[in-house]
Specification:
The complex is a heterodimer of chains A (66) and B (143). Chain A is mainly α. Chain A has a single domain, classed as lambda repressor-like DNA-binding domains (434 Repressor (Amino-terminal Domain), Orthogonal Bundle). Helices cover 48% and strands 6% of the residues of chain A. Chain A is built from four helices and two strands, in the order E-H-H-H-H-E. In chain A, strands 1-2 form a two-stranded antiparallel ribbon. In chain A, helix 2 packs across helix 3. The two termini of chain B are 32 Å apart. Chain B folds into two domains: 5-71, no CATH class; 76-142. By secondary structure, chain B is mainly α. Chain B has helices at residues 23-39, 47-71, 76-112, 119-142; strands at 8-10, 18-20. In chain B, a hairpin with a 7-residue loop joins strand 1 (8-10) and strand 2 (18-20). Chain B is flat and about 55 Å long. The chains are: A mainly alpha (66), B mainly alpha (143).
């Protein structure tokens, strides 16, 4: 799975720490997500989608091949 | 109770438990240790009182550490990492205990002709077995 977290986060002027605090995870988890090293739970994916003001999870998280 | 979870972090690389993360955590350690060390140098306190104070202090400290650990906030990625690390540590322990038990049995048979089983090692393995079964029953019922 790939993510657009870094791109969308920068568009909104958020730092990794800002986003981490908004979704109650560590900055290291955001780094791992942005580097596509960690697949989040559905709950965390939904929280990140909401924090980045996107409509659907698919706007942020892309399954490989999409 | 006394310590706050935000002062500490889980010990990841050197054992189990918690370690200070902020200066308040170090102050907590100092506040706990200094009176106990200081007490050893007060001659007016007799040995019985000293031991009683030490036991009460150790129990309070253990309760506080468990309370801090229970309230430490870790995210899902950290939880997964911790679970994998604990599983690997457990497997290493189980393998060593099983090897130790086998060695003791083999040694006792060679020396005395009768197998001698170390009750502590055997108990540890059975308690671990029970904990695993109980955890799986709980998790199966939970979700």
């Amino acid at each position: 799975m790939r993510t657009r977290i870094a791109e969308l986060r920068k568009q909104r002027g958020l730092t990794q720490e800002d986003l981490a605090q908004r979704v109650h995870v560590t900055r290291q988890t955001i780094i791992s997500l942005e580097q596509n090293k960690y697949n989040p739970s559905l709950q965390l994916a939904a929280n990140i989608t909401r924090a980045l003001k996107q409509k659907t999870i698919e706007d942020v998280f892309l399954l490989d091949g999409e | 109770m006394f310590g706050k979870p935000e002062w500490f972090t889980r010990r990841k690389y050197l054992g189990w438990g918690i370690q200070p993360k902020t200066w308040q955590g170090w102050v907590y350690i100092a506040v706990i240790l200094i009176p106990i060390i200081g007490m050893q140098f007060i001659p007016q306190i007799d040995n019985n009182s000293r031991n009683a104070i030490l036991i009460v202090w150790a129990v309070l400290l253990a309760i506080d550490i468990v309370d801090i650990m229970a309230h430490l906030k870790i995210d899902e990625r950290e939880k997964m990492h911790e679970a994998i690390a604990e599983r690997n540590a457990l497997w290493a322990i189980v393998i060593v205990l099983a090897m130790g038990l086998s060695y003791r049995i083999a040694q006792s048979i060679m020396l005395t002709g009768k197998p001698q089983i170390d009750p502590v090692i055997l108990s540890a393995l059975f308690v671990g077995l029970g904990a695993k079964a109980a955890t799986n029953i709980y998790l199966d019922r939970k979700d």
